[in-house]
Amino acid sequence: MTVTRFAPSPTGNLHIGNIRTAILNWLFARSTGGRFVLRIDDTDVERSEERYVDSIRADLAWLGLTPDDEVRQSERFALYERRFDDLRAAGRIYPAYETQQELELKRKILLGRGLPPVYDRAALSLRDADRAKFEADGIRPHWRFKLDPGAIEWHDLIRGPQHFDAATMSDPVIRRADGSWLYMLPSVIDDVDMGISHVVRGEDHVSNTALQLQMFAAMNAPLPTFAHAALLTGAEGKLSKRLGSLGVEHFREEGIEPQAITALLARIGTSDPVEPFVDPAPLIAAFDFSRFGRAPARFDEGELAQLNARIVHQLDFAAVADRLPDGMDGAAWEAIRPNLTTIAGAADWWHVVEGPISVAVDPEDREFLDAAHRLAGEIDWTGDPWHALTGALKEATGRKGKSLFLPLRRALTGMDHGPDMAALLPLIGHDRALERLSPG
Question: pLDDT per residue over 331-348, tens digit each?
Fold first, then answer.
């Protein structure tokens, strides 16, 4: 069975980049009939906050990305200790005593010589007496995973064949001197223990994957399949700091529907067109990593806003009723919906219906509107009052086209544009229409 996981750190709110990662993991799991797991990566006890855990859950719920299970790394430390001890006994983990300053100096020296800043494994040459002295001096080690020499290769579902040379990579630090964990090893331990079949994440993790593949092998664990999606860029076509600040709260404030976010992020960077799907079923059915390209995926808020409007135009009354102004019914929603870009905009049009509105009448139209006022009191309002009124006005005044419709729309709504007046006028109603057309 396919099992994917979304693994955010609760050190801040989700942003558009990791929201996309969550969507891709959820879509792939659903497309294969598999499971989607939320893993809270809260090993960083100092920076992790419960409010961010709550925020992550709420954001996923709003987006409709319901996980099939949830685990927290902070509840799995005993498992990490056991695996750590096993790997240490097997010679794949070793202690190192260099300070951060010493490591930085080594790095600068190598770079100054034009060499890659690869850790020299000096810690492996320490004698027992050396380590004992460090310990006696109160210097506690950090811990590194020892890489095997040779090529590291895998086939990425998006990027294709991937090749790394372990000789060009430093043995990664997996645990700090204070005993706290870094990302690399606990993530692999969890993927093994949780039976993760596919790791779907951003291409900024590609080098991490090369290191982690050796960790899977060191534990004699089956390797998951990897898919590294190209990073998002801003509308200007380059990486943007703004993308890191765009989260669910921002989109909700802008009136963006969750379906619009899913529809856009599921398709940008692929060969498929972005379409306004209210129901994610078509996105799930068509999901295929072979459709993703390696070029950066361009995220444009303008495109999202346009997509949002197209989705709003499809939403039925039952889906939005609790977000509409008091008194607004299904007929009103059907009338107003085609002119909305966000659901919040319905309140503005409902004010146009209920009034009061402010209208500046062109003196040249006053006689025409006086006739409209008279005829509005005579027509049958039980059928189609708009066409009855405009038909009678056309016959009485000889006006047609824009000179007929525009002054009437302005007087009745205070606007030059808007919903179809045939649908809007019955909502305004007989009494309000006569009041708005009145000479006084």
Answer: 999 999 999 999 999 999
Q: Which two tokens stand for residue 108?
A: 């600068």
pLDDT digits (tens, 9 = 90+) for 32-69: 999 999 999 999 989 999 999 999 999 999 999 999 99
Q: Are 153 and 210 in contact (CB under 8 A)?
A: no
Burial (CB count <10 Å: 0-12, 13-18, 19+), residue 299: buried
| Other residues' Cβ atoms within 10 Å of the Cβ of residue 87 | 21
pTM over cut 0.90: yes
Q: What angle is formed at CA 67 by the lines to CA 66 and CA 69, rounded to 5 degrees? A: 145
CA dist., res. 349 & res. 233, Å (int)? 36
Answer for the pair 16, 246: CB distance below 8 angstroms, yes or no. Answer: yes
Which 3-state string (H, E, C) describes 169-208?
Answer: CCCCEEECCCCCECCHHHHHHHHHHCCCCEEEEEHHHHHH
> How many C-alpha atoms does 427 have within 13 Å on its Cβ side?
25
Q: With bands split at pLDDT 50, 70 and 90, how would you rate the model's confidence at 238?
A: low
* Spatial CB neighbours of 358, under 8 Å, sequence gap ≥ 6: 414
Burial 213-244 (b: 16+ CB within 10 A, else e): bbbbebbeeeebebbbbbbbbbeeeeeeeebe
Give residue 210's identity as a one-letter amino acid code: A
- 417 by Cβ neighbours in 10 Å (0-12 / 13-18 / 19+) ranks as exposed
The number of C-alpha atoms within 13 Å of 266 and in the hemisphere containing its C-beta is 32
Residue 239's pLDDT band (boundaries 50, 70, 90)? low
Q: What is the 3-state secondary structure (H, E, C) of 332-384?
A: HHHHHHHHCCCHHHHHHHHHHHHCCCCCCCCHHHHHHHHHHHHHHCCCCCCCC
228-242: average pLDDT: 82
Per the document, the length of the chain is: 440
Burial of 364 (0-12, 13-18, 19+ CB in 10 A): exposed
Neighbours of 370 (CB within 10 A): 13
**Structure tokens that stand for 399 in this block:** 């006006």
Q: What is the pLDDT of residues 301-312, one digit of tens each?
A: 999 999 999 999
DSSP 143: E
Sheet holding 3-6, edge to edge: 3-6, 35-40, 69-72
> Residue 31: is it exposed, middle or buried by C-beta count within 10 angstroms (0-12/13-18/19+)?
middle
What is the Cα–Cα distance from 120 to 107, expressed in whole angstroms?
10
Question: Which pLDDT value is given to residue 360?
Answer: 81
